[in-house]
Request: fold
Amino acid sequence: MGPRVGEMSLEQMRVLVFGAGFSGRAIARVLANKGARVTGTNRTAEKATLLQDDGVTPAVYNGEITPALSAELQEIAHLIVSIAPNEAGDPVPNDLRGAGLPKLQSVIYLSTVGVYGDHDGAWVDETTECRPTSRRSHQRLLAEREWQRFADEAGVGLTILRLSGIYGPGRNAFVNLQNGTAKRIVKPGQVFNRIHVEDIAGATAHLIENGQSGIFNVSDNEPAPPQDVVEFAASLMGVEPPPEVLFDEAQMTPMARSFYGECKRVSNAKLIGTGYRMLFPTYREAMDSMWHDNLWGRS
Reply:
């Protein structure tokens, strides 16, 4: 478990979410509902203004710290980063180094369980060796190290959240079944790890409130074969699932096929050990909730 710096209230605390997309927006919304004063960035003003519906102050960041964003940075206590690195690395740390962050207390970086690479179906935890196989996961691991340097330079705590496959309203097997893109690809022994977007938001708020830093896997309790999720969603919808297709015979994009090149079971025991209670312990509770609350198609 990472260092604990004391419990704190989010009431009126200033938070900036860099990259308020699917996960970032959910985090911003939960923190705002808890009383934090949250600013979220998007690349364009049009996208940024959507955040106002969540009680979040919009800002634009497209690789440049604007005067308005610079002024905001002087007040923030917590920086949450949900922007993917590119071939040149993560641009955000360098952009922030000259911005001045006098009130900063912590940085939370959203990474991926992809940094662990393939472990032949074995359980992995935060102490497991990282041996990423894909370029995107290797970039994430380098970004984790860059954010550690940034946090060390700033003298603040760093929390790295290694996220499993993200799903939620608008991004799930129901949507794929409805638009005809769902597949039941069967590869013996293959499991994937997943996490509902609301548990990403809930875990982030929990770790901030409890002053936790360090690396945490954010994943549900049950790694499962991908075809099982499709079958469960189809049963809730009352439709026939697509036919099973053997992995070796399946037509997939190179990126989709690359996901099947890794197999591991991601442990969330460290996160649970901090006292966090999963909103959706497995995909079944999550899918059942989205279907019966008619939230599955909303993003």
Notes: The first helix runs from residue 22 to 33. DSSP finds eleven helices and 13 strands in the chain. The two ends are 33 Å apart (CA to CA). The longest strand covers residues 106-112.
